[in-house]
Design brief:
Its cofactor is Mg(2+). The protein is an alpha/beta fold and about 170 residues long. It has one domain: 3-Layer(aba) Sandwich (Rossmann fold). It is built from 6 helices and 5 strands. The termini are far apart. The protein binds adenosine-5'-diphosphate. Adenosine-5'-diphosphate binds next to helix 1 and strand 4.
């Protein structure tokens, strides 16, 4: 069985991520979308919440599993018996760091290959950071995140803004 992992922060999942998930899931028997936990970074959503939002957004893909991990990607891949890491490339600016990561991951786990999918031109501008900015200004998020999670993102932004307002 060919198993691939699509790792990221997914804080929150965007239509750019979903496009990669759809295309990658068509290439492998199973695609594991894995929220990689970086304990130093406080996100908009907790890792558990990101998993839940990803599950809602990918429910229609039969061969997609959503998980989270605080392991090294190379170790996680070995444990899950995955031989491929999928990465989306938006622009040349993504390239340098991603190639560096790919080389390190293969050093740590020689059976692990990284495959890059070029972002669909519709989504090259899109990142989770942009989504957060748009949500802050009350923009319609339908063009940026899966429809299943639009309300959750708006709601969380209102909560965060409310808290900031009280603290400030
Ligand atoms: P970000 O916070 O920048 O959106 P993530 O760490 O959540 O990034 O991204 C996980 C993976 O998805 C990375 O391989 C990243 O290059 C890719 N990715 C993110 N946004 C897009 C997009 N709009 N199109 C294609 N790939 C993307």
């Amino acid at each position: 069985m060919s198993i691939a992992i699509y790792p990221g922060s997914f804080d929150p999942v965007t239509l750019g991520h979903l496009n990669i998930i759809k295309r990658a899931s068509a290439c492998f028997d199973k695609l594991i979308v894995c929220v990689m936990v970086n304990s130093k970074k406080h996100g908009m959503f907790t890792p558990e919440e990101r998993v839940e939002l990803l599950r809602r957004s990918t429910a229609r893909f039969q061969n997609v599993e959503v998980d989270f991990s605080n392991e090294l990607l190379a170790a996680y891949a070995k444990r899950r018996r995955a031989h491929v890491v999928v990465k989306g490339l938006r622009a040349v600016s993504d390239f340098e760091q991603e190639v560096q990561m790919a080389v390190i991951n293969r050093k740590l786990n020689p059976r692990l290959e990284t495959m890059f999918l070029a972002s669909s031109e519709k989504y090259t501008y899109l990142s989770s950071t942009i989504v957060k900015e748009m949500a802050r200004y009350g923009a319609d998020l339908a063009d940026f995140v899966p429809r299943e999670i639009v309300d959750a993102v708006n709601q969380r932004m209102r909560e965060l803004e409310g808290t900031e307002g009280k603290e400030g």
